[in-house]
Amino acid sequence: MKKTIIICTLALLALNSQIWAAPAKKNNNSMTADEIRRYNIRRFDIHNIYVWGGVGYSSLLHPSVSATDGLNYTGTFSVQAKGNVGGLIGLGYEYNYKHFLLSAGLELRILSGSDQLNWSNPYSVSGLEYDQTKYYYLTNSRENPLLCELTLPILFGGQWDKFYFKAGAKIGYSVVGNYQQSMDIHATISDPMAYEEWQIPMPHYNAGQYTQSQSGTNKFGLDIALSAEVGINLDRLLSANWQQNNEARQRPNRMRLAIFADYGLNNMSIQGNTTMVTVDENQLTSQSWMSSEWGTSKLNSLLVGVKFTYLLQMNKVKDEMKQNGYLAIFTYDDLSMAAVGGASIKVTNMTTKKTSKRTTNSRGYAIKREPESDYTISAQCNGFEPAAERAFYHTRDNDTVRIGLHKIVPPPAPVPVVEEIIVPEKEQPIILENLFFATNETTILPQSEASLNQLYQMLATHPEVRIRITGHTDDIGSEEDNQKLSEGRANSVRQAMIDRGIDGNRIEAEGKGESMPIDTNDTEEGRQHNRRVEFMVL
After folding, report:
1. Do 244 and 373 fall into the same domain?
2. Are 90 and 46 within one domain?
3. Domain containing 330 — which CATH number?
4. Same domain, yes or no, for 369 and 437?
5. Using CA atoms, how far apart are residues 372 and 326, in angstroms rounded to an integer?
6. Nearest-CA neighbor of 341 among 362, 372, 321, 324?
7. Which of 159, 207, 446, 471 could join 489 via S-S bond, C-beta 3.0 to 4.6 A?
8. How many Cβ atoms from other residues are within 10 Å of residue 373's Cβ?
C-alpha cells in the first residue's frame, strides 16, 4: 500500500515538473499571482480535475465480540483493537465558485485491522492414561481483517488564501475482503503417578507447541462514511515568481496537503461462527472447542491520516483576461453629490503617451475599454472649477474613477448705498416687490437680489428693528401644499437675510397659505397678486 502511494505521488510530481517547465504566457505578467487568483475567483467558475492519495492509521471497529467455550474451559474471552495501516487513492472533479468548493469522484480505500484476542485460564483434559492431565495454553491470538472498497466521495467546503476545508459523505461498496486468525497452542502434561513412584516434585512436561491459523472471506455490503479534511494550499508556499508564472498559464496547476478523517457507519461484516481451535488426540488435538463470533454484527471503520492532492484547472479563464477591462469615469458635484453631465474628460495612457477625449453622459459617466496601464485623468465643465489631474492604475478588471467638481459661486452683487432708509410703521404689512421664486418651489431666483438688498439695508441700518416675514399663495392646489409652500418661501427670505449677516433672532417667519388673498383667484393677474411675501415691523 505504501509503495503504491509513493509511486503515484512521484509520478504526479514528475508530470507536474514537466508542466511547470513550459514557458508561461505573458498576457498578464504585470499582475501578481494573488491578483490573478482574485480576478479568477471574482469573475469565473473554476473547474478542476484532481487526483489524490493518502496514508494513515486504520481500524475496523466492532460493537460486540464473543466466543463459544469448549469442553472443560472456564476462562473468559476479550478483544483489544490495535489497528493497522490504511490508505486511499482517487480521481475526481472539483468546482470552485468564489470561496465555495464542491467535489466528487471515485476513490479506492484500503482498510485493515489488527486485533489481539485475549483468553484467560488454560483448557484442561483429565482422566487420561496414568491419571494424567493435559493443559492447553493459547497465546499470540490474533485476527487481521482487510477490506478494499470503491467509494463515491461527495464533499463541500471552502478555501481562503492558504487554507481550505471540505466535509461530506462517501458512499461505497466492498470489492475485496478477507481475514486471518492465528494463535500459538502450548500443551503440558501433569503426571501424579510419576510423582508417587519417583518421589520428585510434580513435574509439568512440555508435550508440544504449534501454531494454528485459518482465514475466510468477508460479507460485502454498502458502506456510508462521514469524511472531513482540512489543509493548506501548497502552491501558496512556493516562490512568488513560480506562483506568478503558474497562475498566468492557460491551465494553472495546484497542490494541497491535508489531514483527513473517515468514519464508516454500518459498513461491512466478517463471516462469523468460525472454529478457531481444534484439538486432536494424536497431535495435541481431539475436538473443536472454541468458535469466534467476531464480526458477525456490522463493523465500523476508522481511517485517519495525511492526504496529498494535485489539481489541474480545466477551463481557460486566461483567454478572457486578454480583453481590456472597462474604465468608467464618473463626474459629480462635490457639494450636492449630484451627477454632473457634459463634463469634458481627458485620458492619457502613460505607457503609450496617447490621449483621448470624451464627454460624460447625463448620468455623469464616460465609459470605454482601456488596456492595463498607468493613466492620468482630468475633467472640466462649465460652471465648475477644473479638477486637478488624477493618476490612476487601470487593471484588466473593470475600474471606476470618481472625480468631484467644485461649482463656481459668483461673488454677491454690491449692495447699493442708500443715504437714508425709512422704517415702515409697526404692524403694517409691506409687500416685497420684485421677489421671484421657481414655480411651486421655495428657491429664490437671482433676479430677486435688488428686493432682498433693500430689506437687508433697512435691517442693517436699524439694528433695533425686528420683523415678521409672511408668505402667501393663490388657491391653486391643495390647502396643505399651499401652506407648506408659503412657509417655505417665508423661511427662504429669512435665511437670505441671515446669510447676509442679520441676526436670526430679529426675524420671524410664517406662512398663511391661500387663506388671506388680496385679489381674486379667478384670473391669472389676481392670482399673481395673491402670490406674495410681506414683512411687518414688530
Report:
1. no
2. yes
3. 2.60.40.10
4. no
5. 10
6. 362
7. 471
8. 18
In this structure, the answer to whether residues 367 and 276 fall within a common structural domain is no
Tell me, rounded to whole angstroms, the distance of Cα 366 from its chain centroid. Answer: 34
133-160 vs 115-119, strand pairing mode: antiparallel
Place of cell 492414561: 129
Range of the domain at 397: 323-407
Q: Which of 407, 439, 465 is the last residue of a domain?
A: 407
Got the DSSP string for 334-368? Answer: TTT--B--S-EEEEEETTT--EEEEE--TTSEEEE
Distance, in Å, from the CA atom of 346 to the CA atom of 125, rounded to the nearest integer, reads 109
65 plus 153 within the same structural domain:
yes
CATH for 109: 2.40.160.20
Question: Of 274, 264, 535, which Cα lies nearest the Cα of 425?
Answer: 535
Yes or no: say if 139 and 184 are a contact pair by the CB < 8 Å rule: yes
Domain match, 308 and 333 both: no
| Closest residue by Cα to residue 403 from 484, 341, 457, 469 | 341
Q: How many domains does the chain have?
A: 3
* Residue 17 within any structural domain of the chain: yes
One-letter amino acid for residue 45 of the chain? D
What does the alpha-carbon distance between residue 347 and residue 390 come to, in Å, rounded to a whole number?
10
Q: Is residue 183 part of a domain?
A: no
Local confidence pLDDT in tens for the 538 residues of the chain: 444 444 444 444 444 433 333 333 334 445 677 777 766 666 567 899 999 999 999 987 765 555 544 445 556 666 677 788 999 999 999 998 888 999 999 999 998 887 776 766 655 555 555 556 666 666 777 777 788 889 999 999 998 878 999 999 999 887 777 767 677 766 666 655 544 444 444 444 444 454 555 555 555 567 789 999 999 999 888 888 888 788 777 788 889 999 999 998 755 555 444 444 444 444 333 333 334 444 445 667 889 999 999 999 888 765 555 567 789 999 999 988 899 999 999 999 999 999 999 999 989 999 988 888 899 999 999 989 999 899 989 987 788 999 999 988 766 655 554 455 677 888 889 999 889 888 788 888 888 998 999 899 999 989 999 999 999 999 888 899 999 999 999 999 999 999 999 999 999 999 999 999 988 888 888 888 899 999 999 8
CA nearest to 373, candidates 390, 348, 358, 395: 395
What cell numbers appear for 24 in the block? 508561461
Is the domain of 380 the same as that of 397?
yes
Domain boundary residue among 268, 299, 320? Answer: 320
